[in-house]
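User: Predict the full complex structure for these chains.
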Amino acid sequence: MKNPILRVENLIMRFGGLVAVDDVSFNIFEDRITALIGPNGAGKTTVFNCVTGFYRPSAGQITMRVGDRTHRLEKLEGFKIAQKAKIARTFQNIRLFPRMSVLENLIIAQHNELMRASGFSLYGLLGLSGHLKAESNAVKLAENWLNKINLIDLADIEAGELPYGSQRLLEIARAMCTKPKLLCLDEPAAGLNASESSDLAKLIKDIRDRAKCAVLLIEHDMGVVMKISDHVIVLDHGAKIADGPPVAIKKNRAVIKAYLGEDDENGGSPPSISACSRNALEN
Amino acid sequence: MSAGQKNRSDKNLGAHLRDAGLTALICLPLAFPMFGFQLVPGGEGGNVKTFGTSVELRFFWVIIALIVIFLGRLLISLLSSKAFSKQVVGAQPRSVNTQSMSSITPWLGPGILGVALLWPWFPFVDRWLVDLGILVLTYIMLGWGLNIVVGLAGLLDLGYVAFYAVGAYSYALIALNFDLTFWQCLPLAGIFAAMFGILLGFPVLRLRGDYLAIVTLGFGEIIRIVLLNWSDLTNGPDGLSGIPRPTFFGLPFKNDGSGTNFHSFFGLEYTSMHRIIFLYYLILVLALITNFVTERIRLLPVGRAWEALREDEIACRSLGINPRNTKLTAFAIGAMFAGFAGSFFATRQAFISPESFTFIESAIILAIVVLGGMGSQMGVVLAAIFLIGMTELFRELEQFRMLAFGAGMVAIMIWRPRGLLTKRKPSIRIAHTVDFK
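Assistant: Here is the predicted structure of the two-chain assembly.
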């Protein structure tokens, strides 16, 4: 078995008396798209926030491997998870910098590199031009991603003026501009129409194959999950109930039970999860 | 159809009249005590209780006030409803509006700079007007400094005057105790103020918006009260006097006949205007340096991170930007410019006391930044000229000048609720994109 890039071991997260995540362990591998699914309140977002440093777990270990160095995420300061451990994320409710231009959004993502190149902005202030090369490289990387998401012609308008679907793609592109090893997407397909979500699926696969970045995503749209993910982890009531390739998850009885309630009394063949869960989740 | 439309507009007029009437009615209880009574000396009620004065009723004034309010309100509501109907019919009137603004703005900067450079030499400009120029430029510089903290980094700072005070007192104390010249003290005062900026920055790192405003307000007051009470160092409420005046590269502006002075060196007749004009150009240069640095930083990684922090701190964290360092640099650099302005203030006045650094100063500087349009450098200039220049020009109206100040603020908030200049230029562009103009 290959060496996982992210290893979550016995993760526990308590909010007062409520145990939101109870002893969850899983691995994420380099060349895979891993989906984290589960009914509402299963603890997906909590796991996600622990991994990306927005919550500090009550117990457990999260280890990220970057090259041959490892980082213990539960001990890192929030912003260092992106800076050192190379984990980027997007948000369920899009968090762009709305009054800055599309290009600026992507340049800010490369802040740390530019700071280093410009001597913490001092060279620039003194009129030295050392940082200009770094800046033009940053623009090149940004252009590359803008071409991928078809926003190159809108690079100079304010990000807040973009349509919703483009904002979602831009947020993913911005996360990718931090040159991450693991990209965490929080419901990337929420609010997208059919053609937009197929563009999104293409982009995520492209990130896995060309940018060589592992992807962890939370998603409610089972169509997207089953189509693109290589590996699925299912949570229910804070505990992991299944872990495997999508084909196996579709047939897993525990998963079907979690989504549809006590259903095995019927004795019939289990309904396919993609059809049922969509019905269950659409209300 | 036209009958229906006419009917509707008639109904609208009725509504406007009713609205204006209501406004006048609301103003009645306000106008009555303010205009309706006048204390007159003597009079028939001249007894011990009223100390030889009596109250005269002035119904006529109240009626005039109500009529003015009624007509004014009617005018405003008619105009705004007309503008509204135009907005519905005409396509995108807002873009037309911004376009007409943007055709002026490229000329605004160089125009104002040109006037500022020549200001002391205009024939109509007397000593008072040069002094006024110095005052306006001081506020422009403070506005630009605060613009870094509030406009760019989005940290609402209500105690900015504290750094101004730190700069002024550090200059005064260093100059008085260690016998250093203005040019040696200036950077020291800036460094001290920046240190206080970091000192304030640390405890407020986690605060935003209203909470940050309250803490910074408290910080401003703490500094003022410390200055007031630490008599051994600051001489308390009596302030520090005899602060050395700036010299022109070592040449003092004096007429005491001893040594080389500015006028004797250049062979000029002594007038006190020399010093005033020198101070004018000094603050102009300091303000321009502030502007230059701010404009430059905006295009550098730190400046972009400030703006990103203003837009969304959580997103910044997810991109690996260190929010602590970013905030502290904003506080420190903003405070440093206030420190420079403070030492200029001290050298100009030659006397400082805690009186000069009250909350109202912070409020005026913040008003300049907000009215100018947060983050807009040109907006700060216009707002400072407007607010400071107007209040000084209306000084002859005495108590009514605060009324003019208030009316100006209300007018700006009605017509340009996001500030005078709100257009933001991106800090970086892609060369080959289609230009949307």
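Confidence is low (pLDDT under 50) at residues 1-7, 87-100, 433-437 of chain B.
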